[in-house]
Amino acid sequence: MDPKTLLQNFVNGLSLGSLYALIAIGYTMVYGILRLINFAHGDIFMMAVYFAFFFVTLAQLPWYLAAVLAISCAALLGFTVDRIAYKPIRNAPRISALITAIGVSFFLESLAVVIFSGIPRSFRTIFPQSLNEMIIIGGQVEMKYGREVIVGGIRFPVISLITLIVAAIALVFLWWFIFKTKVGMAMRAVSLDIQTTSLMGVNVDKVIGMTFALGSALAGIGGILWAIRYPQVWPYMGFIPGMKAFVAAVFGGIGSVPGAVLGGLILGITEVMMVGIMPGAAGYRDAFAFIILIVILSVKPSGLMGKPEIVKV
After folding, report:
1. Residue at 247 is within a domain
2. Does a structural domain hold residue 45?
3. What is the pLDDT of residues 223-276, one digit of tens each?
4. Which of 156, 161, 181, 217 could link 75 by a cystine bridge, Cβ 3.0 to 4.6 Å?
């Protein structure tokens, strides 16, 4: 692989990894507070794309307005899921919450089938159609944008650069929200000691609801960027991105937001580089993520930036 292709693949890997990171943050934020793996998170991502499909294709709204509305709807959906499904079982055993999360996932997928049918739907892209070329990669539709940024003879797709910029802005906002606002401070306090925080007068249920909403909004941003890159939506599209984001969260250290970002970026770069070096292995790119999960759980279960849990007896 020549240096130019290597750099192109690196940027594309960063772009893909930033999408995984945005989704992975939702997993790690909820786990950091509730010690719950919200397996319905990937379906929040899927519903965000359906919201965008509705606003762009059916309501004929411009992309920027459709994106804001879709992200807001995703945040509201995450908040609602917490209130209806998870709040009643706050003090139940972990296995009950896990089963509930799986049930919510099936419910959202079935709801999408009932409302939109199980047929994949396509919708218009953010760029004029004259600039785009639709191609098939591994059975999945992807938009190859005719407009590229050329730096030093190296071509960078516009969509990859847009994804990186938007993801960076979202992560900076997340850092500001967590460390510079009272709600963010409450989230950090609840993640450290939920019982002591409640005794200090903090409305823990409200903080948890805000955590679900924020994580779902980030998944919504990831969904919008994914929809621009792959302008198709179907009810089960959230499974693979959701599972890869979960792998990224575990790889970086579940419960650690910086770890989720690092894990997502590493996973995205590694995945794209693997396909670039071994084009014949493109069909196994999804399985590669789960191989990483098995290895990290065997070698360092707490992840790259996670801390081992100490159980007091």
Report:
1. no
2. yes
3. 999 888 888 899 999 999 999 999 999 999 888 899 999 999 999 999 888 888
4. 217
